[in-house]
Design brief:
Elements (H helix, E strand, L loop, with lengths): L1 E5 L3 H12 L3 E5 L3 H8 L10 H11 L2 E4 L2 H4 L5 E4 L14 H13 L5 E4 L7 H16 L7 E3 L9 H6 L4 E4 L4 H10 L1 H4 L5 E4 L1 H24 L1 H7 L3 H9 L20 H14 L5 H24 L5 E5 L14 H11 L3 E5 L4 H7 L5 E2 L3 H5 L4 E4 L4 H4 L3 H7 L4 E4 L6 H6 L3 E3 L5
Parallel strand pairs: 1-2, 1-4, 2-3, 4-5, 5-6, 7-8, 9-10, 9-12, 10-11, 12-13, 13-14
Helix pairs in contact: 1-3, 5-6, 10-13, 10-14, 13-14
The protein binds nicotinamide-adenine-dinucleotide (NAD).
Length: 436
C-alpha cells in the first residue's frame, strides 16, 4: 500500500521505517527541514536501536522516502498517518494544534478519497473534531471526497521501538462505521496479523481511551511500588524482595514493579496529566490516576532531598545516565533535568556520562555541567555518584574500581541496579530506594 507518515519523530520515524520494512511504500513527512535532510542521507535523527539499518534499507529499496511537502505526496497515497507531537498545553491539556494542522492540510489539498489515521496520543473526541474540520474544508472547496478519520494509537516503547512495531502485543484500530477504511487497515497490517499479532477493531472513542488507560495503568503500577518504598525503608524491609514476591503472582506479574525515582519520558507524565484534564472536562474524577501523578513527583524529590542532605558542601557529583530511560536519547521529563539545577543551585558541580543522551543534554546545559567520555571518567575525583538511568553499561561496572577512582564514597542508586552488599564491600556507602 502507499502511505504517508506525517511527523518523523520517535513514533513517526519508526512507523515509517517499519511500514517500509513490511513492504509498503512510505513517504515520511516533517516540517523540520534539517531532520528531513539528515534522513534523506540515510542517518537516523534519533538514537533507537536497529532504526538506522531499516531507514537505509528502505531508502535503498525505494520503498521509503522523505519530504517536507505533504501536499506533493497526497496524490500518491491511500492513507495519511499523523504522528505529530501532542505535548502538554495549557493546564496539561494535550496541545492538538499539530494534529489539526495536518488534518486541515490534507483536507485542503486532497484531490481524491483518502484515509486519515491518527497515531498520536489524543484525548477522546479528537478524531471526531478532525473529521468535522476535514468535512468543513471539503465543503468549502466544493469537494465530495471521502476522508474518514481512524484512530490507531501507538504503544511502542522507546529503546525497543523497532521490535515493538514489528511484533506489537496488539494493534488497536478505532473506526466509526466505515467498512472501506476497516478493509484498508486490515490490508495495511496483514503482514503482522498473518504472523499472529492481534488486531482489535473498536469505536474511535474507545481506541482513543485505550491508549490513555494503558499508560495510566502502567504508571499506577510504578507509583504503587514506589509508594511502598518509604515504608520499606522505615520497616527494615527490602522493596526488591517485595516486588519479587508480588510479581510471581500471575495475576500481578513482575513487570513495572521496579522501584526507583519514578517514571519520566514523553508519554507517562503527559498522558497521566492529560487524562486527568479530560476527566475533569467530563465531570469525572480519577482518584487513582491523581494519586499516581502525585506519588511520582514526590518519589523523585524524596530521593533528591536525600542526596542534597548527604552531600558535603561544594561537592563534585558524578551522574550516570541523563536520558529518562535506557536505550534512548530522549530527555523529555528526564529526572536529570530536575536534579541538575538542584545540585547547581546548592553550589555543587556535576560531571555526567550517558551513552546516548549527552548531545541532547548539551543543548539544555551547554556549559553548566561537564560531560565525560566514559563512566569511569565521570566518577574520577567525585565526592558522590548518582545513578539516574539503568543503562546496562552501568550495571556491569566494577564498583571496587569506581571507589578507587572517586574521592568520596557515596553511591546513590536511583534505579536499584546494584546489590547493597556488593557496593558496601567495595567500600562505598550505598543508598538505594526502598532498601533499608
Ligand atoms: P516527536 O516530538 O518526537 O515527533 C513529532 C514530529 O512531528 C517532529 O519531528 C516534528 O517536527 C513533527 N511535526 C510537528 N508538526 C508538524 C506538522 N505540522 N507537519 C509535519 N510534521 C510536524 O514526538 P513523538 O515522541 O514521536 O510523539 C508523537 C505522538 O506519539 C505523540 O502524541 C505521543 O504522545 C505519541 N506516542 C509517543 C511515544 C514515544 O515513546 N515517544 C509512544 C507512543 C505514543
Amino acid at each position: 500500500m502507499k502511505i504517508a507518515v506525517v511527523g518523523t519523530g520517535y513514533v513517526g520515524l519508526v512507523s515509517a521505517a517499519c511500514f517500509a520494512e513490511l513492504g509498503h511504500t512510505v513517504a515520511g513527512v516533517d516540517i523540520d527541514e534539517k531532520k528531513i535532510a539528515v534522513l534523506k542521507g540515510g542517518k537516523s535523527t534519533i538514537y533507537e536501536p536497529e532504526l538506522e539499518e531499516l531507514i537505509q534499507r528502505g531508502l535503498g529499496s525505494g520503498l521509503l522516502s522523505f519530504t517536507t511537502d505533504l501536499k506533493s505526496v497526497l496524490p500518491e497515497v491511500e492513507i495519511v498517518f499523523s504522528a505529530v507531537a501532542t505535548p502538554p498545553g495549557e493546564g496539561f491539556k494535550a496541545d492538538l494544534r499539530a494534529v489539526f494542522t495536518v488534518a486541515e492540510t490534507v483536507a485542503r489539498n486532497a484531490e481524491k478519497d483518502l484515509i486519515f489515521v491518527n497515531k498520536s496520543t489524543v484525548p477522546v473526541g479528537t478524531g471526531g473534531k478532525c473529521e468535522e474540520r476535514i468535512a468543513a474544508i471539503l465543503k468549502e472547496r466544493g469537494k465530495t471526497h471521502s476522508i474518514p478519520v481512524v484512530s490507531n494509537p501507538e504503544f511502542l516503547r522507546e529503546g525497543l521501538a523497532v521490535p515493538d512495531t514489528l511484533m506489537p502485543d496488539r494493534i488497536i484500530v478505532g473506526i466509526n462505521g466505515n467498512d472501506h477504511a476497516r478493509g484498508m487497515m486490515e490490508e495495511l497490517y496483514r503482514p503482522l496479523t498473518r504472523v499472529g499479532r492481534p488486531l482489535l477493531f473498536m469505536s474511535r472513542e474507545s481506541a482513543e481511551i485505550v491508549k490513555y488507560a494503558s499508560n495510566s495503568f502502567l504508571a499506577a503500577k510504578i507509583s504503587f511500588i514506589n509508594m511502598l518504598t518509604a515504608f520499606t525503608e522505615k520497616t527494615g524491609a527490602n522493596i526488591r524482595d517485595i516486588a519479587a514476591g508480588m510479581g510471581l503472582d500471575n495475576r500481578i506479574g513482575p513487570k513495572f514493579l521496579h522501584a526507583g525515582i519514578g517514571y519520566g519520558g514523553s508519554c507517562f507524565p503527559k498522558d497521566v496529566k492529560a487524562l486527568l484534564q479530560t476527566a475533569k472536562e467530563y465531570g469525572v474524577s480519577f482518584e487513582i490516576v491523581e494519586a499516581t501523578d502525585r506519588v511520582n513527583t514526590a518519589q523523585r524529590f524524596r530521593f533528591f532531598e536525600q542526596i542534597l542532605a548527604a552531600l558535603p558542601s561544594k561537592a563534585r557529583v558524578a551522574l550516570w545516565g541523563l536520558s529518562f530511560k535506557p536505550r534512548t536519547d530522549d530527555m523529555r521529563e528526564a529526572p536529570s533535568l530536575d536534579l541538575i539545577p538542584l545540585l547547581l543551585k546548592a553550589g555543587h558541580s556535576v560531571t555526567a556520562y550517558d551513552p546516548a543522551a549527552m548531545e541532547n543534554t548539551e543543548k539544555i546545559f551547554p556549559k553548566e555541567i561537564t560531560y565525560a567520555s566514559s563512566p569511569m571518567e565521570a566518577v574520577s575525583g567525585a565526592d558522590a555518584l548518582v545513578v539516574l538511568t539503568e543503562w546496562d553499561l552501568f550495571r556491569g561496572q566494577d564498583l571496587k574500581e569506581v571507589k578507587k577512582a572517586m574521592k568520596g564514597k557515596d553511591l546513590f542508586d536511583g534505579r536499584n541496579i546494584y546489590e547493597p552488599k556488593e557496593a558496601e564491600e567495595a567500600g562505598l556507602k550505598y543508598r538505594g530506594i526502598g532498601i533499608s
